[in-house]
Design goal:
The complex is a heterotrimer.
Chain A: H1 2-13, H2 30-61, H3 65-69, H4 82-88, E1 89-93, H5 96-104, H6 110-117, E2 120-125, H7 128-159, H8 165-174, H9 180-194, H10 200-225, H11 228-236, H12 241-252, H13 254-270, H14 273-278, H15 286-293, H16 301-321, H17 323-330
Antiparallel strand pairs in A: 1-2
Helix pairs in contact in A: 2-16, 4-16, 7-10, 7-13, 7-15, 8-10, 10-13, 11-12, 13-17, 15-16
Chain B: E1 4-13, E2 16-26, E3 31-35, H1 42-50, E4 57-62, E5 65-66, E6 77-80, H2 92-97, H3 109-122, H4 138-150, E7 156-160, H5 168-185, E8 188-193, H6 196-202, E9 205-210, E10 213-218, H7 220-225, H8 230-235, E11 242-249, E12 252-255, E13 261-263, E14 277-282, E15 287-289, E16 295-304, E17 308-315, E18 318-325, E19 335-340, E20 346-348
Parallel strand pairs in B: 3-8, 3-9, 6-7, 7-8
Antiparallel strand pairs in B: 1-2, 1-4, 4-5, 9-10, 11-12, 11-14, 12-13, 14-20, 15-19, 16-17, 16-19, 17-18
Chain C: E1 4-13, E2 16-26, E3 31-35, H1 42-50, E4 57-62, E5 65-66, E6 77-80, H2 92-102, H3 107-121, H4 136-148, E7 154-158, H5 166-183, E8 186-191, H6 194-200, E9 203-208, E10 211-216, H7 218-223, H8 228-233, E11 240-247, E12 250-253, E13 258-260, H9 266-270, E14 277-282, E15 287-289, E16 295-304, E17 309-314, E18 329-334, E19 345-350, E20 355-358
Parallel strand pairs in C: 3-8, 3-9, 6-7, 7-8
Antiparallel strand pairs in C: 1-2, 1-4, 4-5, 9-10, 11-12, 11-14, 12-13, 14-20, 15-19, 16-17, 16-19, 17-18
Helix pairs in contact in C: 2-3, 2-4, 3-4, 4-5
Classes of the chains: A mainly alpha, B alpha+beta, C alpha+beta.
Bound molecules: adenosine-5'-triphosphate (2 copies) and magnesium ion (2 copies).
Chain lengths: 337, 358, 372
């Protein structure tokens, strides 16, 4: 109830000061309205400024190479697919004769024709496709693992009296306290020794471990909010602990699971430092690959931009789809009816 | 047959002793109410009986068989929680069917349907069966919770303040409903509350709990007419009983700080049993304004409640609360004469608060 | 000193009427209770009087002066909220003196004012303590002291006892009433507890669904409710309301009993155009159980209420109420020394002075015509 919220704000000031000016939308003076409009415009401007890099990246992705590196930068330009062709294919420059011969062919697809127009021929797909799929496999598997394991241990931490519970929880959190780069070298050495270097399993394991502490804490918050009475009712009704967990707790913390999953996914998807150090060919993910592999003579900004943009899209979609859960996840514990 | 016996139950949480040597018995088909203020240990008692909490010492027996080692699922009790116990992701029907679907019951879907519909009819919630529980009103929710308990036909019902979150009108209605249901079905029920009206109105017997100890067990009449301590006396009855310091010197009882003197010879208690100083308890309805009354005072405040009016009568430096039926014509500042029903006075020890028995 | 007058005051939030146009005059020194179920607009009314909420329509006068568009701080009122907040780091004394200090009042005068309220509320022994060390009731007293110390012309209280235990509530109820009697500051008191409103109010404003249902003294709203809502809302349990048909000086009640109407009512009931449907209303204490009583029913449940027994009687003669608002269970008071078995037959009569009649269509009370 809106009125209650306002009262709380007052009572914090104290009853002696209970009678103070209140700010309510329905009694705004024209002057105040001006202020609000100004603030709105300001925040739009700030949001725009914040988004310029992203916008610039999207624009660069559709520029041809000369436009991408032009100085002063071009805002108006002719869109081109150069960047995407560069991203997905390995090509070779054709001689004039070969070019003429190729241009006779009628069985070329859209991409081949585009490449031909640039005087080149497609040799085969670039590594980017496999890197992107590595990213997907590793991010999704580690997310599933981190959320599942996190859920179980969060449930235990929330519901059972574990000796030294707070120390354990602190210990779990402490695994996130030092910057990842600090431990890359030791992990690199360990991984090489046990044969996990440049493997999917190695990366999945690593990201799971890293996400686990976060997922335990976040999910514990959600489970704490589900009243224990629900499960106890089920226990008295004749169900076992595990059945009660599956039938009662699980359906009620979908929100939490979704939020946690998104956060874990974003982390694993974006991770750069470990991926750079611990993978080379087989298990290399997209983040280190995009800036590193795409320059053959000068940095190909339009290709990098195209890669970055494609790389962003899945995260944006997932985040957007789950945004109401996310908001709840970020503020968990803060909202109580 | 279903009967619960608690023997010397003790439970500690760290340094807090939630229950201290609690023993009582709930008889077959009895409506037993556990009454006590916040923190008395009422919920803990229920949870121990249901097997949700383990006691530190003592034992719980159903029909004479100890059940201390049984998990909650095998005790065959139904628990109605104060709140929260309806599963928000399920419909009312699914909520009612939930206990019947428990693996240990292996009930056929047909049988489940029959039982659920019957229960819904008894509680008049048939029209709600397909609704999600999140969209029910408070009263409907609590009726469904009760339904989830009775649908199983368990050995005993354990109810933890099921009415306390409802508004006054609903509470009244459900109180009547529960009491009717229990009496007509003859189920053994242990009902926990801190509301004395609920206890008095519904119970066959009441157990009063304070600081983890049973203070008195008895019928509502016992508790109201013969409270064992000043604590029990104050706990039941609204408005509260008048407790006054009083003294006696043989023949006359004097209420301190006032000029009320009662000749002790007419009292039910043998004045020889009384020490010189004690606490005198007078229920408000036993203070009766009466032009021919023996005592005089001044009206300090009137509270007309409709059915009755509370008169705060100032006598010396003490105030007596009196209830009179209807809306009283007396008003503040008027002097008033009143009588006291002497057969119904209560005498308590000044230091321990324990009742002097007749 | 304050007389508050509301003229056609109303409040709309978007399309929702939170308070429909209402007229109300609160006289100087009066204690008015605003009573109604949750969401009926009590708080909104109070906030409009305080100036914390702008009115949508109508005008508000304090002592004859139009204050409709004055801000809260210009109205000289004190608003007491449901949750009293005390500053935990200050002593009780500092807490009480705080509102005065912020006004820049002289030390001597502050001391004198504080001493006054401390005496009034009998909290002298608490002055040096800090709020966390106080019991709930004491905290409430201190909070009251803090709003009293400003000596406002008028108090607006929004369920100040709502957060307290039932036990404390009874004590604090008398306390607030006593304070009011000592100071005679105009007070508007919001509550949804009808017992509180009855016990404290000089007059009660019963609201429901954003509308004023009745304004009257406790005796008026109890004995002569203006409509079915008030009849049911006031009292615990509320008034028994039994529909029936008026046929030749008798009412055939639902459930089969025939109730001969009190002679004083007959002309009124007979004069209602050809309408014969009527609702008979009576309070639990208006019924007298007797062997020869005109109304009969079966005991549905019975319970002890300390000094008396409340009988719940099904007039249908059935033990199961026939669902969906069709209940004809009435509640009657009976002597506690008789034991009533569920399912047994009881008969009772009604005290003719205490019977009221309602029109089922308009839901309003039927006024008794007084002849010549
Ligand atoms: N899980 C627990 N851990 C620690 N202390 C507990 C726990 N459960 C109960 N207690 C303590 O035991 C005592 C009794 O608690 P209990 O919940 O049984 O009281 P209650 O009579 O049900 O009170 P209420 O009317 O407030 O529900 C209290 O002092 C409480 O703080
Ligand atoms: N700021 C607001 N915006 C929109 N609607 C509001 C606002 N404040 C109150 N309302 C609505 O106006 C109606 C009356 O609210 P109000 O707070 O006055 O009720 P109340 O009688 O005080 O109820 P309660 O007893 O629950 O406090 C309610 O339906 C409420 O939802
Ligand atoms: Mg409890
Ligand atoms: Mg309100």
């Amino acid at each position: 109830m809106a009125s209650t919220r306002v009262e709380h704000a007052f009572s914090r000031v104290g009853p002696g000061f209970a009678v103070v000016e209140s700010v309510r939308v329905d009694q705004i003076t024209p002057r105040a309205r001006l202020g609000i409009t100004a603030r709105l415009i300001l925040s739009i401007i700030i949001a725009f400024v914040m988004l310029i890099p992203v916008l610039w990246m999207a624009m660069t992705a559709f520029k041809a190479r000369p436009d991408a590196t032009a100085s002063p930068p071009k805002v108006i330009f002719v869109p081109s697919l150069d960047g995407f062709i560069g991203l997905f294919t390995n090509r070779t420059q054709l001689s004039a004769a070969a070019l003429a011969e190729q241009q006779q062919r009628t069985d070329l697809n859209f991409w081949e024709r585009q490449t031909l127009a640039r005087g080149m021929r497609i040799l085969g797909p670039s590594k980017f496709v496999s890197q992107l799929s590595n990213s997907l496999i590793i991010a999704i598997s580690s997310t599933i693992l981190a959320v599942t394991l996190g859920l179980l241990s969060a449930y235990a931490f929330s519901r059972y009296d574990i000796p030294g519970k707070r120390d354990w929880l602190f210990f779990i959190l402490s695994t996130r306290m030092l910057p990842a780069v600090v431990v890359t070298i030791p992990i690199f050495l360990m991984y090489r020794a046990v044969g996990l270097y440049d493997t999917h399993v190695g990366m999945i394991l690593l990201y799971t471990v890293f996400n686990l502490s976060f997922s335990v804490w976040l999910l514990k918050g959600f489970i704490d909010e589900i009243p224990i009475e629900y499960e106890e009712a089920a226990l008295v009704d004749g169900y076992s602990r595990l059945q009660a967990f599956r039938k009662i707790v699980l359906p009620q913390c979908v929100t939490g699971i979704a939020a946690t999953a998104v956060f874990c996914l974003i982390f694993a998807w974006n991770e750069y430092a470990f991926a750079l150090m611990l993978t080379s060919e087989k298990a290399r993910t997209a983040p280190p690959a995009i800036p590193a592999n795409l320059g053959i003579g000068g940095i190909e900004w339009h290709v990098i931009a195209a890669g970055s943009m494609l790389f962003l899209i899945p995260v944006v979609i997932v985040t957007f789809a789950l945004r109401q859960y996310l908001l709840r996840g970020v503020t968990f514990g803060a909202i109580r009816q | 047959m279903s009967q619960i016996t608690l023997q010397n139950i003790t439970k500690r949480f760290g340094t807090v002793t939630a229950l201290n040597n609690v023993s009582f018995e709930v008889k077959h088909a009895e409506f037993f109410v556990l009454l006590g203020p916040t923190g008395a240990g009422k919920t803990t008692t229920l949870r121990i009986i249901a097997g949700l909490t383990k006691q530190d010492a003592g034992s719980v027996a159903f029909d004479g068989q100890p059940v201390d080692t049984l998990p909650p699922a095998d005790r065959d009790v139904a628990f109605v929680f104060q709140q929260y116990s309806l599963y928000p992701t399920m419909t009312v029907y699914e909520n009612l069917a939930f206990p019947l679907r428990a693996p240990l019951r292996r009930m056929k879907e047909e049988e489940i349907r029959k039982r659920v519909t019957e229960t819904a009819e008894v509680l008049r919630i048939s029209h709600l069966l397909q609704r999600k529980t999140a969209r029910l009103s408070g009263g409907e929710m609590q009726r469904v919770s009760i339904g989830r308990a009775i649908v199983r036909n368990p050995r005993v019902y354990l109810m933890d303040e099921p009415l306390s979150n409802l508004d006054a009108k609903l509470r009244e209605a459900l109180r009547v409903e529960l009491s009717h249901l229990q009496r007509t079905q003859g189920s053994t029920t242990l009902f926990v509350t801190h509301d004395q009206i609920e206890a008095l109105t519904m119970a066959d017997r009441i157990g009063v709990l304070n600081h983890g100890c049973i203070v008195q067990v008895g019928t509502p009449e016992d508790i109201y007419d013969r409270p064992a301590t000043t604590f029990v006396a104050q706990l039941v009855g609204s408005p509260k009983i008048n407790l006054l310091n009083a003294a006696t010197d043989g023949g006359v009882i004097t209420i301190m700080d006032s000029d009320v003197h009662l000749p002790a010879c007419e009292l039910c208690t043998d004045p020889a049993n009384l020490p010189c100083e004690f606490i005198l308890g007078i229920r408000p309805e036993d203070v009766r304004p009466d032009p021919a009354g023996l005592f005089a005072g001044e009206i300090a405040l009137t509270e007309p409640l409709g059915v009755e009016t509370l008169l705060h009568i100032r006598i010396g430096r003490q105030t007596l609360v009196s209830t009179v039926p209807g809306i009283s014509p007396l008003s503040r500042g008027e002097s008033v004469r009143f009588g006291i029903v002497r057969e119904r006075l209560h005498f308590f020890d000044r230091t321990t608060g324990v009742r002097f028995s007749e | 000193m304050a007389e508050i007058e509301l003229r056609q005051v109303a409040k709309k939030f978007g399309d929702l009427w939170a308070v429909k146009p209402m007229d109300l005059t609160i006289y100087d020194g009066e204690f008015v209770a605003l009573l109604g179920p949750s969401g009926c607009g009590k708080t909104t009314t109070l906030r409009m009087i305080s100036g914390l909420e702008a009115v949508t329509e109508g005008r508000i006068f304090i002592n004859g002066k139009d204050v409709t568009w004055l801000s809260a701080s210009q109205r000289d009122i004190a608003f007491v909220f449901q949750f009293f907040a005390l500053y935990p780091q200050m002593t009780v004394r500092q807490n009480i003196a705080f509102p005065l200090e912020s006004q820049g009042m002289k030390r001597a005068e502050i001391n004198q004012r504080v001493a006054e309220v401390v005496k009034l509320l009998e909290i002298g022994h608490l002055l040096q303590r800090k709020p966390p060390a106080l019991s709930g009731g004491d905290k409430q007293r201190v909070a009251l002291a803090r709003s009293l110390v400003r000596k406002p012309a008028c108090f607006l209280m929004d369920e100040p006892l709502g957060a307290l235990d039932a036990e404390f509530r009874e004590v604090m109820r008398a306390e607030i009433k006593r304070l009011h009697l000592a100071q005679h500051a105009t007070t508007v008191y919001v509550t949804h507890d009808q017992v509180e409103a009855m016990a404290m109010g000089d007059r009660i404003v019963v609201m429901s669904a954003a509308e004023v249902q009745q304004i009257g003294t406790p005796a008026q709203v109890y004995h002569d409710p203006a409509n079915l809502f008030v009849a049911n809302f006031i009292g615990s349990p509320g008034m028994n309301l039994v529909p029936g048909k008026y046929v030749g000086d008798e009412v055939h009640l639902r459930g089969g009993s025939v109730y001969p109407t009190p002679p004083a009512w007959r002309p009124t009931l007979a004069a209602r155009w050809q309408r014969d449907d009527v609702i008979v209303g009576f309070r639990p204490e208006a019924a007298q159980v007797s062997e020869t009583g005109a109304i009969r029913g079966m005991v549905y449940a019975s319970d002890l209420h300390g000094s008396y027994t409340m009988l719940h009687v099904s007039l249908n003669g059935e033990l199961r109420p026939n669902g969906n608002g069709e209940d004809t269970i009435v509640h009657i008071r009976a002597r506690r020394d008789v034991h009533y078995v569920i399912g047994s037959l009881v008969r009772f009569d009604l005290n003719p002075e205490m019977v009221r009649f309602f029109d089922p269509e308009s839901e309003k009370a039927i006024a008794k015509e007084v002849r010549g």
